[in-house]
Amino acid sequence: MHRTEIAAFLNQKGGVGKTTSVVNVGSGLTILGKNVLIVDLDPQGHLTSSLGIDNEQIKHTVYDVMCGEIPAGDSFIKKELGARLSVNGQDSRLSLTVMPSNLNMAEAEMVLAQKTDREYLLKKAIDVIKDDFDYILFDCPPSLGLFTINALAAAGKVFIPVQTEYLALESLHNLQIMIESVTNRFNHNLEIGGLIATRFDGRKVINRTVVERLKEQFGALFLESMIRENIVLAEGPERGKDIFTYRPRSYGAEDYLNLCHEILDGNHISDESLSIEPGKVINRHTASRMIS
Ligand SMILES: Nc1ncnc2c1ncn2[C@@H]1O[C@H](COP(=O)(O)OP(=O)(O)OP(=O)(O)O)[C@@H](O)[C@H]1O
Ligand SMILES: [Mg+2]
Which CATH number fits domain 5-291: 3.40.720.10, 3.90.980.10, 3.40.640.10, 3.40.50.300? Predict the structure, then answer.
């Protein structure tokens, strides 16, 4: 039976790599043969803009969907990736589906707060289209407001990108309490998918120490695939590109592909799967070997 994995990427701390992770996990899973929808729940619209989608292209946002003004599918924007897929000798472009946001959503939270069932608006909208996708990923804003609660009410898993610095440990405690409270009140099925270390620099003692502390505290929930500090991950959004399109041979691409494998099934990448290049054709066979 087809089962859609729905995951929220959340940390109320700003700038820890939530958006970067949703863009590149979404793109990586697409390259590995999955059909992926990514949802921008942040009025800052960074997920949308980092894929080069500008305001003129946006007809409807996730807010319009949550209000019930339009069906979810009417907000979709298809974003083509650099890699192509070859099935039975036919090349096709790989694409990611984006449900965008923009600054108009900033006041929307107050309007949504007046609605009955306000915590389940996203879940209701997503339920209708979820079977069309293998993965649906939510990029949460750096706050624990209504958009975040909607994401957690609709998700099966929550992934927590965390920068390996001391303050991270403090904010994680509050985040855990919040996730427990949402689980009890709105979504008994919600699980923590894992903590993702981001912007890791092995030369920094502080980074290494915090990683050890996180491993002790969270055990297997601390995912093995850490994301290293890599400048190209910050450059990609300026050019509206995911890391596999922008710099497929970078550490950033390697780390995010590794993370995708861990999210899929706990396996790690083979060298072969690192050789994806923009425009390069990968075939179903390769893609499925990369997955298995
Ligand atoms: N591994 C990395 N190496 C280098 N730069 C990174 C890395 N990950 C993220 N960045 C950069 O750090 C900044 C913050 O990342 P990002 O926007 O993904 O965080 P966020 O948690 O979504 O932030 P916000 O809370 O504002 O939504 C961005 O400029 C991004 O390009
Ligand atoms: Mg963000």
Answer: 3.40.50.300
